[in-house]
Every structure is written in structure tokens, then in C-alpha cells.
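CORE FACILITY INTAKE
Project code: CF-77B
Contact: R.S. (postdoc)
Sample description: multi-component assembly, four entities in total
Requested service: structural model of the whole complex
Turnaround: standard
Below are the sequence entries exactly as provided by the requester. Do not edit them.
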Amino acid sequence: MTKQRLNAEDWLRIGLQALARSGPSALRAEALARDLGTTKGSFYWHFRDLPDYLERLIRFWEDRAFEGVVARLDGDLPPRGRLEQLCLLAVGLRDPDYGGAALEPALRAWALSDKGVAEAVARMDARRIAYLKDLCHAAGLDTSTTPTMLYALYVGLETLDHDDAEGVMRAALLRV
Amino acid sequence: MTKQRLNAEDWLRIGLQALARSGPSALRAEALARDLGTTKGSFYWHFRDLPDYLERLIRFWEDRAFEGVVARLDGDLPPRGRLEQLCLLAVGLRDPDYGGAALEPALRAWALSDKGVAEAVARMDARRIAYLKDLCHAAGLDTSTTPTMLYALYVGLETLDHDDAEGVMRAALLRV
DNA sequence: GCTAGACCATACGTCAGCGTATGGAGTTGT
DNA sequence: ACAACTCCATACGCTGACGTATGGTCTAGC
């Protein structure tokens, strides 16, 4: 039932899923090939080598992880409403095709042993916090600690994989 | 200047440091031996094999990570004061001999690919959150979301390795 | 149907890291 | 001094994973 001819994006998607499921050590050509029901012959057709694949994998994530959430925001809401919607969206639904909620903790894990990944994650964090800061500013909230606090809370809830992450985030939003 | 005869604890300490510095992939016998200025002959003298070492490493952490912080609390403080002291201690000083602030994110990274580690981390999380819940209860605070919120914030700040983690935590404590 | 190119399977060389075997050096007690 | 024990160095075989080489299969276009 799995498709027989693959393209590079199939390999990248399965890579994010494997990363989310089993951590960075799952990013090996032969193991991914098994997941896709093929062999590494296909892998080395679509990618020069493993570093090439990993580099494109991290860019694949980076190209989607910011827009994916922000694009869903309701532009008609006032700043405060958009802030709350953003925080609740972030801790809520994720796309399982791209690794689901476990992806980003695994990415941070990967960043521990790969400088390029660490830089990509740092860029993403900075970008998101800057966006949160703008929203807080527009909503007339404190901008010195609140944006970082909300973001750290998001990262922590994601890491802990807490059942009622949304409830906790909601309680926190009542207090900012 | 490094000591010539080693014991098992030397290997465990260097293991936590390597884990914190470079992630789980650094937990290899020969690499650790280089760090200690010896060879894997010593490693296999003190440990049966790698699984044995890793198992003892995780227990080594588990035996210290809870008591290490709680023992420093000032018992004379009222509950609310102890809660605040605990949160600020947690995001603050760490023992670099045992891996420093980067250790626990690396442990969570490791947990992604090792079931035993995942269970140990889950036990630790549950234990700490239960302790926080007791403190919140004694302080007359909400116990449904606040303990998890404070803990997730701690985990997030630790993961982000934020410069002013203490300031962010302090701001959060003003609002619980 | 045939050819060209895109895509995949398989076999192989290479290397890193595990675990073992064995001998040797250092230390302690007598 | 010697024996016994603790601890470490080194050489070796083995496995898993990377990357290459080479040939096979599928599909599009004519």
C-alpha cells in the first residue's frame, strides 16, 4: 500500500517522524529505508550522503515550524486574543505527518550533538520570542519577562508531554 | 595531574559531564576513556559492559537529583517562602561536577531512545511535581495547575538555557 | 515496442566502536 | 622479598552503519 516510487520529501517526512519517535540516533540511512519499505539505494539516489540529508532535514523543519502556527491565527482578533490563541494553538494540535508533539524535544536533543541544528533551533527560538514580544507589546503587556515566560512554559509543557497542557497554559494566560 | 587509579564513580561523573556536553552519543567507552586519560581496559574492569554502565549512570543521577536541591531548602521559611526558594534554586546554581545546567535536557534527549531512562525521568518528574504540589497546598495556593506550571517553566528555562532564568522565574512567582 | 532516464536492490570495502583475552604494572600485607 | 590482589594497556575478532559500484526495473515519450 505504500507508494513504490519515492521522492526526497518522503524521506524528509519519515525522517522527522523517526526523529520524533526514537531520537536523533534513528536518523540512519538503512533504518529509514526499512521504515519506508525500501533500501538505501533510494536514499543515496536522492541525497549525496548523510550530512546532506541531515542538513536538508533541518531546513525542511525550519521552513515549516514558524509559519505553520502563525498562519492559523485569526487576524480579526485583538492582540490579546491573538496572543492567547497562539499559545493555545502551540501546545495543542500538531501535524503527526511531521513528527507531532515529540518532534521539537527530539530536535533539541539532536542540537546537543550537532552545531548546525543548535543554530537552527536558536534561530527559531529567537524568531518566536520576538513575535511573542510584539504581540505582548501590542496587547499592552509587560515585554521584559512575559514573552520568555510564555515560551519557556510552552517548551516545558512540550518536553513533559503533559496531558492537560492546554489547561496549564490557559491558567498561565489568566495571570499575565 | 589527573589521578592515576580510578574508581567507578570517576567514570560515572565523567559520564554525566560528557552527556551534558555532547548528548547521549558521547556515552561510549573509548571516548570516555580519552576524557579520563586512560583506556577502556579500566572501563571494562569497573563495569561489565556498556548497558551495565548506562544503567548505573542513570541511577547515579536519580540518587542525587532530587535530594540535591531539596536538602538546601531553609526549613525555617514559611511554605510560600520555601516554594519560592526552591524554584529559584532550581533554575540557578548547578554542580558542574555533575554536568551542570545542560545535564537534564541531555537526559531527556537520552530518554527518547532508551526506555529505562525514560522511566527514570518520568519518576523524577512525578516526584518533583508531587513535592511542589505539597508546597503549594501548604502555602494555600491552587494545586490543580500551578505546580505543573512552575515545573514546566523550570524545564523550559533549563532547556532554553536562558540568561535571566532567575528573573523570569521570579516574575512568574509574583503571579501565582 | 523501444529507448532514455529515473529510481531502486544488492554486494562490497571501510571504519568506528564493542567486548574479550592476556599480560603487565602498581599496591598491600606478611 | 614475595605473594596476592587491584587496576590498566594493548591486540584482536566481531558487528553495524556508511558510502560506492553495478546492474536491474519501471515509466514516459516517441
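Facility notes:
- Residues 4-5, 28-31, 40, 44, 49-50 of chain A lie near DNA strand D (CB under 10 Å from a C1').
- Chain A touches chain B at residues 22-26, 102, 105-106, 108-110, 112-113, 125, 142, 144-146, 148-149, 151-157, 159-160, 162, 164, 167-168, 171-172, 175-176 (CB under 8 Å).
Invoice: internal transfer
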